[in-house]
Each structure stands twice: as C-alpha cells, then as structure tokens.
Amino acid sequence: MSQQHKEHYEESELYRIRHSAAHVMAEAVLELFPQAKYTIGPPIEHGFYYDFDLPRPLTPEDLEKIEKRMRQIIAGHHNFIKRVVSAQEARQIFKDQPYKLELIEGLEQGGQDEYGNPLDEKPEISIYTSDTFTDLCRGPHVENTGQINPSALKLLSSSGAYWRGDEHNPMLQRIYGTAWKTSKELEEYLWQLEEAKKRDHRKLGKELEIFTFDEEVGPGLPLWLPRGGVVIDELEKLAKEMEDKAGYLRVRTPHLAKEDLFLHSGHLPYYAESMYPPMELEGVKYYVKPMNCPMHHKIFGARPRSYREMPVRLAEYGSCYRYEKSGELFGLMRVRSMQMNDAHMYVSEDQFEEEFMGVIALYHQYFKIFGIDKYLMRLSTHASSGLGKKYVDNERLWLKTEEMVRRAMDNGKVPYEEVPDEAAFYGPKIDVQIWSVIGREFTLATNQVDFAQPARFGLHFINSEGQEETPLCIHRAPLSTHERMIGFLLEHYAGSFPVWLSPDQVRVIPITDAHKDYALRLVSQMKELGIRAEADLSNDRMNAKIRQAQLFKVPYMLVVGEREMTESTVSLRKRDGTRLDGMPVGQFIKLVQDRIEKRSSEL
Ligand SMILES: [Zn+2]
Ligand SMILES: [Zn+2]
Questions:
Q1: What pLDDT, in 10s, does the model give residues 579-602?
Q2: Long-range CB pairs of 42-48, under 8 A, 24+ apart, other chains included
Q3: Least CB-packed of 342, 357, 396, 453 within 10 Å?
C-alpha cells in the first residue's frame, strides 16, 4: 500500500472496524489460553492480525472456537474506553506481559509507537479497554463492539511469526482475520482470495512451464522456459510495433558499466543498496546496471543534436539487476534480474505535453489489448521539506514540471490522483495502478519526468535560435518488466492467454496412427503461416491427449480422423469447450490468423 492509501485507510471506518476486531479476537484468545502472552495486533490492508505467544500450536478447531466467541463478545456491545496512563501505570497494568513491557519502554523513550514502529514524536501512552480486555493502544476504534458486523467477519489462518520480524526472537503465532462492513463485501473478498490462489502466477507458471527458479542460479533470477520465451517474444513484438509507429529508435546497451557512470548518474551512492556489489577488473570497478537510463543518456550525448531531430526517443528491452532482500523476493513480482520495456524520450519544453500524452495514449492502447478496464494514474509530486534531501534542490523546476504534467493530464482528460511527497529523486512521476479481472491491484509501470539527469550528463541540443538547450527526459515503461507483466498476465488470464500470446496456439490430435501424416501436413501448413501448431503423436489415447492439451490451456485442439482426412476438414475443440465438427481447414486457419492479427481476446 502506498503512503497515501495508508493515510486514507487509517481514517476510514473499515480501519476502525478491523482494529476493534483485533481487540475482540485477543480477548477470545486470552479466554482460551489464559497464560497467553500477547504482542501486537494491527489492521492490515484487507483485515487484521494479532501475534500471540501460546503454550501450544493453534489448530483449525481453535480458530473456529475463537471466531464463535468473538461473535458473542461483539453481541455484548462493549464500549471501547480510552485512558491515558503514565509509563509506570502501564507497566503495572501489563506486569505479566513481557512483550507489552518492551513496547512500553519504546513508548517511554520515544521514537517508537505501540507497534514498535519508528515514530518521530514521543507519544502519550494510552490504553483501551473493552469488556475484559485491555490493550496498549492509541486507537482508533468503533464506539462499541456492536458496530462490528458479526456476519462480515472471518478468521482466515494462523502462521508462525517472529517477534518484531527478527529470527533471533521467539516464534509467535499470528492469527489473520478479515472484517468488512457487509457480509456481501466479505463474500466478495473470500471469492477473490480463492480465485487469487487458483490464479497464483507461481503455481500457473510452473504448471504451464513458463518459468522456473534454480537453487544454483540463485534466488530472484528467473529462468524462462521455452513457453515463457514465446510469451516474451510476443510482448516484445507488440512493444516494437507500437514504438515503431510512435517514432522510437531502438538501441542496445551492455549489462554492466564502470563505477564512474553510476557515480555520474547519482545511483552511487544514493541507490547503492539496491545494486549488486561491484566486480573489479584491471583496477577498475564495474557494476551490473540497475537501470538503463545512464546508458541512454550517453547515447543521446554521443553526438551533437539539433532541434530538428527532437524529440529523440530511445527504446530498449533492457536487462537490469537489482538487489532485493531474499525475504522480499516473490515469484516474478519481486526479482533480482529483470527485462524492462524501457525508453527515454529527450524533449524540449515545447514538446513535453504532446510527448507525454503520447505515452499516456500508449498505455490506453495496451489496456485495451489486455482487457484492463480499471486503472488509476497517480501523480507523485515533491514536498518542499525534502528539497536537497529526497529531491533535487530546484523548487522552480519542480513546480514547473509538476504543472506541466497536471496540464497535460487535464487537457487529455486523464483521471488521476495527486500524491504529495512521493516523487522520484529527479522529478515528478506517474504510477500506473491496474486491477486484474478478479479485482486485485497491481502497480505495473511508472512514468517519470526528469529535469535533473539531462543536466547532470551535460546533455543538450541546439535550438532554433542556435543556442544550447537542455532537454527534459521522460522515462517510461508501460509494459513494465517481462517479469512483472507476465506475473500479472498469468493471474489476469488465469493462465489462458489469448491466442496471439499463447505459447501453443494449435494442438493437432490424430485419432489413430493412420491419421498421423494428415496431422503433420496440417502442422507444417500452419507453421508455414507463422501459427504455433504441434501434433500430439504420442501413443496416448485420444482423451488423454485432449486432457494434456487442456492442461496447457491450448486455445485450439484439432481432432483429425478418417472423415476429416478425406474431406480436408478438422474437428475443432476450443479451450472453452465449444466444438465445431467438419470445419474446412482453410476456414480454421483464417480464424486463427484473424485472432492473431487483431491480438483479439476472443477465441
Ligand atoms: Zn487498539
Ligand atoms: Zn530511466
């Protein structure tokens, strides 16, 4: 969740409901285990949790019991009553609760809140009591437990969690729950969880043989299997077509560069902790690149530029390497090597709006192709307080470029939300949030306006008055990285890629050996036309072959036997179960070509 979302959330009714539900849950757990030590129980994005130190592992039956007891407590309409206390009094109240005593110390010394999170000011110490349960807490809650809807509440799971997330600390048991305003919202959420499990890109990626990880290669370094390679090729083909039309020029850059380049760009030292450590050769340090920008800047600056060739749009599916902590790696969504749909556009101020809107238009075209109906653009701007620290120290340029972006978005009638104090170091950025068909949110791509790097690299062009002028740079990656995009698409399509993107498009299934030659003839005819077709010549029975094709979510299966062979037809079975018998071969090929050519989402 972004900072902005978090702030909205913390003021919401849902947040109060979930926070209150966590208290109610703790009360129920303490009744079941009077000797339990309790730690913290904050609301989280779609619910809440509470961590306990318990005498034995929790069972599913325990969760049922706890949930049932929670409903009874809720029905008691117990008020949440706040009291501000001294540290000494707090220690007395929680004298049997060692974790709370530790938290009280953090509160007393300042610098930490009641969850042990860093805090700027020294907070007052407050407790909240409802029914028999008292917690170290600063709220907010609902007024009384009756305001938690008992039919919109569910405990989801329990798992181990280290105290303060540190593996040297005791292992606690965390109970996850969710709470909503209405039972309908709860049902929708549970459905989404179920769907997300089925659509988990790690599971589908394995089943469909898209990608794998290997211990010896290293964590966060995906290996793309042949089927994944096809998806990548298709995405790159799409990107190249669109970018060619939009006047981009394609470049290629090495995977590593000298330390000097990254010192120049400012990645060192500011971005160093996200970079792989250097390697040394002939007394010079080299780094693998975390971003492609500095190399593109060098290409722009490789020769003098005139206003006549502006804007210059340099595109590359560039490989980058970033160090993510092993604990934070997650399938394809968080990796250490990535290939980015990158481009840098060097534009004069006059050209900015048109170029910027050109990028937004590209997004819309992609959304349409991928059937992404819900999206949000978030414009992150600077904050004066961060100038010279988080942000390049030039308020005039900040205000100017932010206004340029706003004007472009307004003129283009692009809906957006503005978020202060979340910009990139060198300029305002636009994050593009999209929702998959099951309603899960993904941040795929960012679009950044950069008024600092071109000057750092001494980039300029000769304007129409014969003067040197520094261009602005737009960084954009609408298709994100292959890793993130394919991770998203696997969930979005539940593995059933549209025909144009499918690793296998057609599977021909001969009924007996006598029909193998006909099957092979069909395959070579289709391959000739660029259709990804294969014949299943194994000795399996026909039904097994069909099942096999279904497992790989092949869009079209062609069953061919005696009749098809003599009539030069095919019996088509589509992935969705529809069947068309006796279809002339030419007609089928036309259908596939049409779907591919239009990048249609139809079968
Ligand atoms: Zn609370
Ligand atoms: Zn860039």
A1: 999 999 999 999 999 999 999 999
A2: 42/115, 43/9, 43/15, 43/18, 43/19, 44/18, 45/1, 45/9, 46/178, 46/189, 47/18, 47/156, 47/176, 47/177, 47/178, 47/179, 48/18, 48/19, 48/21, 48/22, 48/176, 48/177, 48/178, 48/179
A3: 396
| Global pTM value | 0.85
Ligand nearest to the CA of 453: 2
Q: 533 φ, ψ to 5°?
A: -120, 150
Distance from Cα 223 to the centre of ligand 1, integer Å:
45
Strands (E), 289-368: 312-321, 337-347
Q: Ligand 1 center to residue 41 CA distance, Å?
A: 8
Quote the crossing angle between the two packed helices 3-10 and 13-32, to the nearest 10°.
70
Q: Ligand 2 centre from 34 Cα, in Å?
A: 56
What's the half-sphere exposure (Cβ side, CA atoms, 13 Å) at 277?
Answer: 1
Q: What burial letters (b/e) apply to 100-119, b meaning 16+ CB within 10 Å?
A: beebbebbbeeebbbbbeee
What pLDDT is stored for residue 6 in this prediction? Answer: 62
**CB contact at 8 A, 201 and 487:** yes
* C-beta of residue 558 within 8 angstroms of C-beta of residue 522: yes
Cα–Cα distance for residue pair 87/105, rounded to 1 Å? 8
Nearest to 155 by CA among 254, 237, 50: 50
Ligand nearest to the CA of 341: 2
Structure tokens, 337? 């090597």
Q: Which of 318, 316, 317, 312 is closest to 345 using CA atoms? A: 312
**Distance from chain centroid for Cα 113:** 29
User: Would the CA dihedral through 584, 533, 529, 603 be positive or negative?
Assistant: positive
Q: Which residues pair with 211 in a beta bridge?
A: 224
Ligand closest to 427 (CA) is 2
CA of 475 to the centre of ligand 2 (A): 5
CA-CA distance, 376 to 409, in Å (whole number)? 12
- Angstrom CA distances, 296 to 206, 254, 359, 454, stand at 35, 11, 18, 11
Q: How far is the CA of 320 from the centre of ligand 2 (A)?
A: 11
Q: In percent, how much of the chain has pLDDT > 70?
A: 99
Number of residues assigned to the chain: 603
Whether residue 132 has pLDDT greater than 70: yes
Q: What's the gap in Å between 267 CA and the centre of ligand 2?
A: 12
User: What is the 281 CA–ligand 2 centroid distance (Å)?
Assistant: 27
Closest listed ligand to the CA of 129: 1
